[in-house]
Amino acid sequence: MAQTAYVNADSIRFAPKCPHCGRAAETTRSLAAQRNIDALFGEYGLLTLVEAPVCRSASAARRRAGIASTIASVAFIFIGGFLATAAALNDYTILAVALGVTVGFVALLGRTGWDDALLDRALLGVNVRRAGANRLRITFTRDDHFSEWAAMNPLASASAGAMGWRPPPKPEPPPDFALMSSRRFPAIALASSSALIALHHWFARSSGEVFMVGLCLMTALAFLSIAGLVYPPLFWAVSTHGRHLAAPYRVAGAVIGFAGLAAGFLLGVSYGR
After folding, report:
1. Residue 68 CB: number of other CB atoms within 10 A?
2. Dihedral (C-alpha) 258, 263, 266, 270: value to the nearest 10 degrees?
3. Are 30 and 50 in contact (CB under 8 A)?
4. How confident is the model at residue 163, as a pLDDT?
5. How would you label 148-183 residue by residue, b for 16+ Cβ within 10 Å and e otherwise?
6. pTM above 0.85, yes or no
């Protein structure tokens, strides 16, 4: 049975054993602590990382599962989104809604970090979530490891009550952090591009004329805006503001933008049928 406790992030300690199998730890694994309400409504910020000692086999299994989960989630979101769009265009409303809800659920798991948390619990025997600014909720699947951990962390508690802790000083934000972390610009861009796409849809249906270039650009902007609402830096990844981002983020932004262009092209072609 899983055991849960609350502890301050700056005072947490671990026994030198793998929480999954109980063997001596051979390496460490970074556990990302997220908080649902911050992930959904707050601005993007740096995650709290907790280094947990684990054995090499558990670490390797978790790494493989994480890669497979990321690839499968991204593929499902893109393919499911295209299928939902195609179903909606062909008046399969129930199928389109079902696909849209499923895609939204998968995206929500990734946005709130629960996909990683579930993998950590299953493959590492421990997962961590944020319960406050400097407060963590940690869960162990093995009772014996939890008992040993609790003995090493006497300030841990079984509830989220305050224990007199003080939040650590916030680090200095990098340049453009306020711009790159805000969801305001992606939200405005999504609203604007959606309105223009809807206006173009009405015009194309009534007059039979399609502005293919403008439609493709608007759908690309809409795709990047949706990505920016999930992870704000992706909205800027293909602009000059995203030059300092790591290459995988810039590549992801380019892929999302091209996917939006393709969706706009398919939508434009559909008007001629």
Report:
1. 11
2. -160
3. yes
4. 39
5. bbeeebeebeeeeeeeebeeeeeeeeeeeeeebbeb
6. no
How buried is 89 (Cβ within 10 angstroms: 0-12 exposed, 13-18 middle, 19+ buried)? middle
C-beta atoms surrounding 269 within 10 Å: 11
Mean pLDDT of all residues in 140-165 = 72
Write the pLDDT tens digit of every residue in 95-104. 888 888 888 8
- Asked if 43 contacts 181 with a C-beta cutoff of 8 angstroms, the reply is yes
250: its two tokens: 């810039």
- Contact between 13 and 151 (Cβ < 8 Å): no
For 80, 179, 231, 261, the CA distances from 242, given in Å and listed in that order, are: 28, 11, 13, 20
CA distance 124 to 23: 12
Q: What are the boundaries of each domain within the chain? A: 3-68+112-152, 174-273
